Automatic annotation (TrEMBL):
Domain of life: Eukaryota
Biological process, per Gene Ontology: cell redox homeostasis
Protein name, entry field: Thioredoxin domain-containing protein
Family: Belongs to the thioredoxin family.
Species name: Rhodosorus marinus
Coiled coil, from the record: none
Length: 162
């Protein structure tokens, strides 16, 4: 298991006051999935890394599935936690393409998409954005509810041309 959360007290170590730091121990035990927020990684489990604007365009525009894109920053703790939560739910949604993009290496594209907070999630269907949502770990159940609502795709009603 990897230690998550930067420098500090590790598993079972004592703090300056001599008290056991169980909070840090719990955090390090939760880190079972690889961190999804490291530069240079092709994928993290079931979440694929979009490295360029071209990757973004290809995946969003060429998929027949609902596409979820998580916009994150490698220094963002909420992004790391949300990434682990996202990894945990991906098996429940095989009809959704899960992706992520590093804001730090794709600033121009992210800014053009209106990304102002991290992590931010965009949902696309047939190249069109159908939802966007900024949420950290506390609001993650709301993201799952949105995924559930898109689980079975969409029914488009086309107008009759007379």
């Amino acid at each position: 298991m990897a230690f998550v959360g930067g420098s500090g007290v590790g598993l079972g170590a004592a703090s300056r006051s001599g008290a056991k730091c169980s909070r840090r121990a719990t955090v390090s035990m939760v880190a079972t999935a690889p961190a999804a927020d490291k530069v240079g990684r092709e994928s993290s489990g079931n979440v694929m890394e979009m490295k360029t604007a071209q990757d973004y365009s290809n995946i969003v525009n060429d998929s027949d599935d609902v596409v979820l894109v998580k916009f994150y920053a490698p220094w963002c703790r909420a992004c790391e936690k949300a990434g682990r939560l996202l990894e945990a739910v991906t098996p429940q949604y095989p009809e959704v393409s899960f992706n992520q993009m590093n804001f730090s290496t794709n600033r121009e594209l992210c800014r053009s998409l209106g990304i102002k907070a991290m992590p931010t999630f965009h949902l696309y269907y047939e190249g069109e954005k159908i939802d966007d949502f900024s949420c950290g770990p506390k609001r993650f159940p709301e993201l799952v509810e949105r995924l559930e609502s898109y689980k079975n795709g969409f029914c488009k009603i086309e107008e009759d041309v007379a």
